[in-house]
Q: What sequence folds into this?
């Protein structure tokens, strides 16, 4: 869950201010944000099932 959150933060920062990847491709940023949100939601759901 932490890794997905970190990836999400990196790509949101890339779209917003161009760091750390220099806003090379907005399409790649958008796809990475969607995928990291999906992984974050799936890992959160799995974490809830443990308890």
A:
């Amino acid at each position: 869950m932490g890794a997905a959150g970190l990836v999400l933060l990196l790509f949101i920062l890339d779209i917003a201010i161009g760091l750390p990847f220099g806003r090379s491709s907005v399409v790649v940023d958008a796809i990475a944000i969607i995928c990291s949100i999906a992984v974050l939601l799936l890992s959160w759901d799995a974490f809830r099932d443990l308890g």
